[in-house]
Amino acid sequence: MTKRPGRVAIFEQFAADGIKHMFGNPGTVEQGLLDAMGQTDMSYVLALQESVAVAMADGYARASQQPGLVQLHTGVGLGNAVGMLYQAKRGGSPLVVIAGDAGVRYDAMDAQMAVDLVAMAEPVTKYATRVTDPESVLRVLRRAVKIAMTPPRGPVFVALPADVLDAVTDEPALPTVVPSTRVLPEPALVARMASVLSGGKRPLVLMGDGVATSGAQRELATVAQLLGARVYGVNSSEVNIDAADPSYAGNVGHMFGADSARIVGDADRVLIVGTYVFPEVFPTLSNPFSRDARIVHIDLDAYEIAKNHPVEIGVVADPKLTLAALAVELGHQGGAAAAPAARPVARATAPSGPPSVLELFTERLAQQAPNDLILFDEALTAGEPLGRHLPAREPGRFFQTRGGSLGIGIPGALGAKLARPDQPVIAFTGDGGSMYTIQALWTAARYDIDAKFVICNNGRYRLLDHNIDQYWREQGIEPHERPGAFDLTKPAIGFTQLAASLGVPGRRVSRLREVDGAVAEMLSHRGPFLIDLVIE
């Protein structure tokens, strides 16, 4: 291999791994790296703030099922990106994040911008390291890609000092080998799992995004049918089961453990697949399952199995292969004759009376949108109309925020569109969430990324309203005026004007009679377009 600087060699490694986009925000200590990139075919997607870059890479990774590459500017850039990296870690997004620093030779100086990058990154990544030898740059990058892409997937971080990248290396660029995790339990264990799960009067399935990562949606639905079980999403932000499947009953709580406990407390047979249990901010400290519940947990993340609550059988295995084998065994044991779920599944019904602006908008969008529409949903408190009119049915066409942080809606949709350029992509976000990463609209305009954005504008952090209402009930506090910090109307944000200043046209919709024209204009417009949908 010909000797060349590490700053050149790394792009040979990225090319060997088929990585075509780098999402980032530049800085001085990365200038040599970015200069070298100009001689390659890699596309640099410029973000005006680092959290936007991470969120775009997150959307790209989720839609493409390939690693998303992010470039950050040393400690200040990493600091700006921490919130989005936390979301990526909680959601299992395979990101490869690189950041420069001035150089190994300056470590003892404690100079401007000096910081322990690895220590900063470790809490919000699956793996973090710093390269200090020019002959190991590509080796470490391959290790990073491998770790990011090996389930349980997640973001990884590599610090690349400028003097290490300036040094020459003859290290070869080779495609990264991602080990296969398509492992299947031994037949005796599959038979035991089937025996434990069979015969229940109140069977329950709890699922998460490990199902989507494995491509196990069909197998999960088959097992649920054989068990006669209700299916609830837990850490579920993608299509893990068709929302129209009769066994699907919705999601457990994401904020208060008591909500999840009410759902799982009467189950006597529980199958947990591809998720941790449970994802609430305020979880129940006691075991929410009944004493007689027999529980089987299947996941490729051994850490999450029986982490908080005991299970009878824990299996570190591929969900798709394991569920397929379990379905066969259940059939042999008479699972096809299982009784249906004992408790009827509650389905969302359309509200009575005249439709709201949001209700009519989602209805008209469902009627007019192409069949291959991809939705990126961050508007959680406005999600019921979306679920009614645009339910998450096909894998790869629905992505939702996860990890508890705001701001992924707009940039996540941009990343998804870059990954799937031939499919229409629409993001739904809130007025509060959109302002975390509104700079992403500039990136959409700069690269003419043909994604659409709907801001559900209620003038508040509405989720906080719901949460404090519950807090008051739990604490026995009389309801009163909510904190002024939840209000976003003083002054009101002019989203269409703000979008226009960033190069994206838009339209404000506040009346029912404006809905039809707005939906038609959004869908027919070529290039990025924003709807300011006033819903209150």
Automatic annotation (TrEMBL):
GO MF annotation terms: acetolactate synthase activity; flavin adenine dinucleotide binding; magnesium ion binding; thiamine pyrophosphate binding
InterPro entries membership: DHS-like_NAD/FAD-binding_dom, THDP-binding, Thiamin_PyroP_enz_cen_dom, Thiamin_PyroP_enz_TPP-bd_dom, TPP-bd_CS, TPP_enz, TPP_enzyme_TPP-bd
Thiamine pyrophosphate enzyme central domain residues: 190-326
Essential cofactor(s): thiamine diphosphate
CDD domains: TPP_BFDC, TPP_PYR_POX_like
Cellular component GO terms, alphabetical: acetolactate synthase complex
GO BP term, pick one: isoleucine biosynthetic process
PROSITE patterns: TPP_ENZYMES (PS00187)
Domain called Thiamine pyrophosphate enzyme TPP-binding: residue spans: 388-532
Annotated keywords: Thiamine pyrophosphate
Residue ranges occupied by any Thiamine pyrophosphate enzyme N-terminal TPP-binding domain in the UniProt entry: 9-119
Pfam families (alphabetical): TPP_enzyme_C, TPP_enzyme_M, TPP_enzyme_N
Cleaved signal peptide residues: none
Record family assignment: Belongs to the TPP enzyme family.
Entry protein name: Benzoylformate decarboxylase
Organism (species): Saccharothrix saharensis
Lineage start: Bacteria, Bacillati, Actinomycetota, Actinomycetes, Pseudonocardiales
